[in-house]
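Worked example 3 (structure in, sequence out).
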């Protein structure tokens, strides 16, 4: 008979293992010596020890599920309980019991963690739903659409809840997305309709603009183009491609008209500038007739100047009042000289001459006062114009005074 601290072999070849409950039969050994029998069953014990060690490490260091761990423990416990090994089986049972406690603790930890994760996932999904429902009301179509797509990706990354809760939240989430999509589709459909109306309106504006491009009614057509531009802005925008094409045609038609008008106006301005120089020269020539010394000669000279004046075309509008005013002042001076001459030769003219002299003196005094006022106000152009007129009035006054002297002679 052979034995060691944990087992023995009797004379019949039966192998026993010692446990806290007494000896237990391990098996029968007939193939060799008792030492070989114990060594064989001790190796089986060592194999169980290795398996338990491996399971302990897997439980501690991997995400082995509690179910799989429990199944593995049961398999090992069965091997220990069947007593087919020689060694400290009670120690192995204790290790397996401790492993069961560890697995149960891990199970509870995972249960708590899963509950926490589920709660966090529910809160996260509720937040996603709330944001989606708020975005469903938005009119920031691009930004809100992009954000909703990002929320879907976020949703997919969250763990599932219980089926009822998950389905209810997903239904609200999906409904919000659908509501936004429906509103956006309606908005762009209405926008497309508006743009189509704008395109039709602008087609008409372009057609009219193109029909006017060859017009030579510079004032009327320019005014109509301004009205067309106002109508263009009020029509709204068409689809991008149509808008660009229509605008290019509209602008091109205007450019043709205004380029032609610009050329005509440039020629006209150059011509009118030359006309102004000629009329200024004639005005200077006419002004030399004042004061009038020889009325008949002055009148004849003025008629000749005026004929040349009328033969000259238009001058720039802003220069017209000044140059025409100079000629008118000379003409008034001639008329007043003629009247003065008539009064001088008329037997009844003395009284009228005296009255005229008083009127002319008053007019001269008034003009001097107006000139002083204009210069004080810094209006030199008006002052110069009045000074020219004063020269004519003063000449008439001098003639009237001379006429009175003649009446007195």
């Amino acid at each position: 008979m052979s034995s060691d601290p944990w087992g023995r072999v009797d004379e019949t070849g039966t192998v026993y293992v010692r446990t806290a409950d007494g000896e237990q039969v391990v098996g029968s050994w007939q193939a060799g010596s008792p030492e070989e029998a114990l060594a064989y069953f001790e190796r089986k014990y060592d194999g169980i020890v290795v398996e338990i060690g491996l399971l302990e490490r897997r439980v501690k260091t991997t995400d082995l599920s509690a179910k799989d761990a429990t199944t593995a423990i049961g398999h090992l416990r069965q091997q220990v309980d069947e007593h087919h090994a020689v060694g400290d089986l009670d120690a192995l049972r204790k290790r397996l019991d401790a492993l069961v406690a560890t697995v149960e603790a891990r199970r509870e930890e995972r249960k708590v963690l899963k509950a926490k994760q589920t709660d966090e996932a529910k809160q996260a999904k509720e937040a996603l739903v709330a944001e989606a429902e708020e975005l469903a009301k938005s009119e920031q179509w691009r930004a809100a659409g992009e954000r909703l797509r990002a929320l879907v990706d976020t949703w997919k990354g969250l763990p599932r809840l219980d089926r009822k809760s998950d389905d209810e939240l997903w239904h609200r989430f999906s409904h919000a997305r659908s509501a936004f999509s429906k509103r956006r589709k309606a908005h762009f459909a209405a926008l497309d309709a508006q743009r189509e109306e704008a395109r039709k309106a602008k087609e008409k504006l372009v057609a009219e603009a193109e029909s006017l491009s060859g017009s030579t009614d510079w004032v009327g057509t320019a005014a109509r183009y301004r009205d067309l531009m106002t109508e263009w802005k009020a029509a709204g925008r068409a689809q991008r491609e149509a808008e660009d094409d229509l605008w290019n045609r509209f602008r091109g038609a205007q450019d043709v008209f205004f380029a032609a008008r610009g050329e005509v106006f440039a020629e006209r301005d150059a011509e009118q500038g030359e006309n102004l120089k000629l009329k200024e020269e004639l005005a200077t020539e006419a002004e030399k007739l004042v004061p009038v010394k020889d009325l008949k000669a002055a009148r004849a000279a003025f008629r000749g100047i005026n004929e040349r004046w009328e033969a000259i075309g238009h001058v720039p509008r802003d220069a017209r009042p000044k140059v025409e005013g100079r000629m008118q002042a000379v003409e008034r001076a001639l008329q007043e000289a003629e009247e003065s001459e008539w009064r001088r030769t008329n037997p009844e003219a003395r009284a009228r001459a005296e009255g005229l002299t008083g009127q002319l003196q008053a007019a001269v005094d008034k003009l001097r006062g107006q000139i002083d006022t204009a210069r004080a106000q810094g209006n030199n152009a008006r002052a110069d114009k009045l000074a020219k007129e004063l020269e004519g009035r003063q000449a008439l006054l001098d003639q009237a005074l001379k006429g009175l002297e003649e009446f007195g002679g």
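Notes: The chain has a mean pLDDT of 88. DSSP finds eleven helices and four strands in the chain.
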